[in-house]
Amino acid sequence: MRLHEHEAARLFQQAGIPVPPFAVARTADEAVASLERIQLPVVIKAQVLVGARGKHGGIVVAETPDKVREKAGALLGSSVRALAVESVMVARKVPIARELYVGATIDPAAGAITILLGVAGGIEVEAATRERPEALFRRTVVPPDELRGHQARALAHEAGFRGDLMVKIGDVLVSLFRVFRKTDALIAEINPLVVTADEALWAVDAVLDVDDAALFRHPELPADPLARMEHPLERAAKKIGVSYVDLDGDIGIICSGAGLGLATMDVVGQRLRPANFLETGGGITEKLMYETTQLVLEKPGLRGLLINLYGGINPIHEGAKGIVRVLREKNVTIPVVAKALGNRQEETWATLSEGGVTVVTDITTEAAVDALCAALEARR
Amino acid sequence: MSILLNKNTRVLVQGITGRIGRAQTKWMLEYGTKIVAGVTPGKGGETVEGVPVFDSVLEAVRQTGAEASVFFVPARSVKDTVFETLEAGILLIVVVTEHVPVHDTMEMKAAAKRVGATLLGPTTPGILTVGEAKMGIIPGNLFPKTSGPAGVISRSGTLSYEVGGILAKAGIAPSTVVGMGADPVVLTDLPDLLRFFAADPQTKLVTIVGEVGGVQEEMAAEYIAREFRKPVIAYVAGRNTPEGKRMGHAGAIVQRGMGSVESKVTALEKAGVAIARTPAEIGTIAKSLLSQTRS
Q1: Shortest distance, CA A162 to any CA of chain B (angstroms)
Q2: Residue A206 has pLDDT above 50, yes or no
Q3: Mean pLDDT across the stretch B184-200?
Q4: Is A189 in a helix, a strand, or coil?
């Protein structure tokens, strides 16, 4: 779950990271009211969950209360990169002498946490570090080990910092690491971490993406991962408990595993165009397959549906009943082909056939795609 | 022969009294697994399918000599339970559970390394040694009754079933099928699993079933090029995944060109691995590789 900038900024601030004074505003009035606490000039930032806001008009500067009213008002209710701006962050503008990058991510190869310090921060950090990889310094920490102060300062020293600034950067790294661990984060970034002319540090952006699987133990974090998903079908799918990704084609796909889903898309994609990716995970029930099938069929323009299931932990015989219930209730006439193997497969095949589904008993997904292509040909 | 698990391995089922634990225990016993104990704290003294249930792993190990464990334990309890199990001296643990917090996985992985234990998963259907035993949920009826020369390591549970069936159709039985899971951090990496197959005389060829996201296949390519002498086939799923979209497994995201199917296939090909473009191609490639090895 991706946190909004202001949510992450608050957590960073609480952890001791220097964040310029800020407020969140949902109306132009609220934006102006925040000036009681926040000195002009201010930066007004659209709170949308997308990168490169600055390049797309999502970050503006205002020097007077009137300008704050005007610019906040303009941003609110508009959209940045197709996302509606429902709130803005009003923050004191900090004079920038130098931009750094600090971040923490998971290193899948090491099964550990990578701490990053980049001396070429700012909007162009990806390009900068590609062109100058020597500008990025890193350290790996294996949980439950922590990033110690002396290790963080050593990293800052390696990056060329000395004196007070080295110590302050070290402190920011330690605090960022703590937030990362404390929130079960996947990514934490401050880009840019600003150094002012008098060597003060300020975090003028805050990115925090936390592990959805850990939300159960974080009552202090926002509890609305669904609301942060853009696509209505993707959101609805998450609500049911399945993973749906909208694509451009016209052949609906339902699979009982993510790897199977990817492979199915590979095979379907050789001859047809997948309309979506969908995997049900290990919790198939009659109800889940009913809701899932209904959901997939909601996408307009579908010409066919391919179902690919394996019953290991999944009771596919139960799932089959849910599928045919939708086909019957909605009077579905597009060709539906299913390959369903595993525990209690004969029962599953009987239920599906009786429900009008073309059942493929071959082990390969190619056979199912062949059957679907044949059915689509027959239509024409 | 096999890797990690055979018909004599004394297996413990944790979460045995839950709905899934119960049902899967029945299937595992039917397949031939030597389940000697179950653990659900608070249910000590009960029996499930004839298997005695204990309150703690230590007790189960002391009373029955259990040496391997399979988990049907909720995500929030997995880390705690793994630590208990490692402390009791068990060195093979299969974590079937999905949605385990990544931070927990990292801690478990480090703990396993410290004591030299092999952990599989999370989000794995487990391990199945054909004709002998299985730990987890891999359907036994998809495979032949007698084992053969093909080792299978898969990041995807469901794809491991498909590939097992495809090999069977080609007349090639697997030796052991291992689900390694596809979480962003896995408890045992692909090169280490390949090492087990390197040491198994029965396994003559290994199939890797990979997918977009992460760097497991790239790590495997390095290891294979350096020291793996048996023929390897790989299928990497997700060629048609659009960039930036997260599909299914949290690991399946293509970002900045890393973790793409192309990068994995390139690395594997360079290491001498035969690439199947669809799961079905694995059958034909395996047949030809095995006949080459024989001649």
Answers
A1: 33
A2: yes
A3: 96
A4: strand
